[in-house]
Amino acid sequence: MDLNEAKLAGYEKLGETVCKKLNSLGYSAWYVKNKEEALKAALKLIPEGASVGVPGTVTVRQVGLIDELKKRGSKVSVHWDPDLKPEGKAARFLEELSSDWFVTSTNALTADEGVFVNIDGTGNRVGAMAWAPGKLLYIVGINKITTDIPTALKRVRDAATPPNVIRLNGKAPCASVGHCVNCNSTERVCRIVTMMERPPFGRECHVIIVGEELGY
């Protein structure tokens, strides 16, 4: 077995281990090897005609789900649409929240406890993860899995946030130094921290773990 095969085999073992933990907690979770399989799984899960809300997630875009859903005729609500006027963003947040499905990724997912750890600036993304009337689907790259909550928080602040701020042309200090400095900048995006330990009461929650590095 060469180095790449060994790495992929390790990804599969880790993904299956985390899925087993998540299923024991009440999620419906399964592992796929790549983003092509993740796309097929998501399209099989989300029925045709369902409305879908997608927050600012790079992972879901990398998988190609949005375009495929639109081809099927689904109403897909995204607040980062470049054609959207600023005054329409708040309404789009609510459209995402009220969709039949809310599809997102996570900043980090702990292997030992199955906790989803997320940090948000506006709160629309973590708010809809915590509560929305529709079903929830996480699509999670293998790079998002950490050991425990402290390492998850460190991953979010030091590995995920700086490149995301750079991508959005933000001016928070982490964009300049490449790691979190716990700033008090008006541009700070780390404002709301959530940890989901179990699916919320009465909500159907699905998780697709992907054996590729996706998102930040």
Structure description:
The structure is a single chain. The protein has a single domain (3-146, 197-210), classed as Rossmann fold (3-Layer(aba) Sandwich), CATH 3.40.50.10420. It has 216 residues and is α/β, with parallel strands linked by helices. It has helices spanning 3-24, 35-45, 58-63, 65-71, 89-97, 124-130, 149-167, 174-177; strands at 28-32, 52-53, 76-77, 101-104, 108-110, 116-120, 135-141, 145-146, 192-196, 205-210. The protein is built from eight helices and ten strands. The mean pLDDT is 95. A hairpin with a 5-residue loop joins strand 5 (108-110) and strand 6 (116-120). The longest helix has 22 residues, at 3-24.
Order of helices and strands: HEHEHHEHEEEHEEHHEE
How many helices does DSSP assign?
8
Domain unit count: 1
Please give the alpha-carbon distance between the first and last residues: 29 Å
Would you tell me the structural class of the helices and strands? alpha/beta
What CATH architecture do you see?
A: 3-Layer(aba) Sandwich
Based on Cα principal axes, name the global outline. globular
Main CATH class: Alpha Beta
How does the major sheet shape up? 6 strands, parallel
- What oligomeric assembly is this protein in? single chain
- The CATH homologous superfamily corresponds to NagB/RpiA/CoA transferase-like
The low-pLDDT segments are: none
**Would you tell me which CATH topology applies?**
Rossmann fold
The pLDDT mean sits at: 95
Radius of gyration: 17 Å
β content, as a range?
15-25%
Strand order of the largest sheet: 1-10-7-4-2-3
Number-wise, the strands total 10
Helix content: 25-40%
